[in-house]
Automatic annotation (TrEMBL):
The protein's name in its UniProt record: Hydrogenase maturation factor HypA
Binding residues for Ni(2+): 2
Chain sites annotated for binding Zn(2+): 70, 73, 86, 88
Gene: hypA
GO biological process: protein maturation
GO molecular function list: nickel cation binding; zinc ion binding
Keywords, sorted A to Z: Metal-binding, Nickel, Zinc
InterPro entries linked: Hydgase_Ni_incorp_HypA/HybF_CS (IPR020538), HypA/HybF (IPR000688)
Family: Belongs to the HypA/HybF family.
Top-rank lineage group of the source organism: Bacteria
The protein's role, per its UniProt record: Involved in the maturation of [NiFe] hydrogenases. Required for nickel insertion into the metal center of the hydrogenase.
Length: 109
């Protein structure tokens, strides 16, 4: 389960930026094409934050849809899964969104 390693990296970054302050909430944006299961990440977050300044914090995850542009027909379209195929049938596509994982915000006190 790669979600644990990714979540641990997020928690490490959050705790570093919190600089000893208590973390109450972390908001992430996860691209639909990242192959990350939000529910698995929620579970891992509770484990990864245990004993840290983020222990007990809430994790809010928003999923950004994938998007691509076809190099054959020049159409832009949404991708809901990692199958990179344009509605015109071409596989010559450029992914333009949906592969990022961003820490959007965190609430600290």
């Amino acid at each position: 389960m790669h979600e644990m390693a990714i979540t641990q990296s997020v928690v490490d970054a959050v705790c570093e930026h919190a600089a000893g302050r208590r973390v109450h909430c972390v908001t992430l944006e996860v691209g639909a094409l990242c192959a990350i299961v939000p529910d698995a990440m929620q579970f891992c977050f509770e484990l990864a934050t245990a004993g840290t300044v983020a222990d007990g914090a809430r994790l809010d995850i928003g999923v950004q849809p994938g998007a691509a542009r076809c190099r054959t027909c020049d159409e832009s379209f949404e991708l809901s899964d990692p199958i990179l195929l344009c509605p015109c049938g071409s596989a010559d596509v450029e992914v333009t969104a949906g592969r990022d994982l961003k820490i959007l915000s965190m609430e600290v006190s």
